[in-house]
Amino acid sequence: MNVREILENITKEHASDIFVVAGRPLTYKVNGKMHTYQEERMKPDMCHDFVTAIYELAGHRDISQFETTGDDDFSFAIVGVSRFRVSTYKQRGSYSAVIRIITFTLPQPSELMIPDAVMELANTNKGMVLVTGPAGGGKSTTLACLIDKINTEQEAHIITLEDPLEYLHTHKKSIVSQREICTDTENYLTALRASLRQSPDVILLGEMRDYETINTAMTAAETGHLIFSTLHTIGAANTIDRIIDAFPAAQQHQVAVQLSMVLHAVVSQRLLPTTDGKMVPAFEIMVLTPAIRNIIREGKTHQIDGMIYTSTNENMLAMDTSIFRLYQKGIIDKKTALANASNPEMMSKKIGAI
């Protein structure tokens, strides 16, 4: 089994993920649909050989941690083919892996249909910008496009803290320091605290996993740095509630006040299937206004969705408005629009009125 050749062939099919699991053929996903690479089912010994070969391709990475704990995450590149983000795990006692394929070159934001209002967030000089959404929703790609825009247009020191590294950035106008958790540094919190002593202008924090990391990130944003990060939440209101709820009850009011001052924008996104079998992102964009800051301070986050929906500000976009525009352009069908709308009844009326 030539694993390098298999990875090369599947990459040419424009796949997003590869699944190595015993009991079914080697499987890959293209535009959200599963395809099999071969008809033969993968046996446990074949999975063992495949996963071991991946570790060899990843610069002879030490496999002992995976063998001991049953889990490992890392990334590697094959020159002239692609970068790969790998999550290895054991299931039913056999070796398994999910491999995300990451292109070497970032597509243009316009090709990915990322709105200008999102890309303009790269011109923010301080505060916190959060990109949220479900796993596999394109958050990493959107953030990579924002970092690339800063790197191309501004003289800055950008520090990225990722687990693992995905897109690799070359130094353009900016200096880009990319640190991988567990490889270059111990954990997110240690790396974030250290980064504040490294004269950063922009910090990309791959994930905010606990209240200590969130607290340090908010302090960094408060002291004049631009912080980009992600959360697995859907919608601006849910994102704000998640951050505040991560803290002990006694601190929550104080955190809400602090968050209302440092938060600059929340972008939520999800990928939807298009009529031609591809995937397209739909966005909710909330840029904080004095009224929204006041709502966060007062703990009335349930009012945020309504404010975004009725806003005339061109930097504000409700998820349902984004979905409806995709339907109007014929990019998605009615079924997809209704299935993903937060208010299907209203969406149905708008579609019926066309």
From TrEMBL:
CDD domains: PilT. GO terms for molecular function: ATP binding; ATP hydrolysis activity. Residues 196-210 form the Bacterial type II secretion system protein E domain. It comes from the Bacteria. PANTHER family: TWITCHING MOTILITY PROTEIN PILT. Belongs to the GSP E family. This is PilT/PilU family type 4a pilus ATPase. It comes from Roseburia inulinivorans.
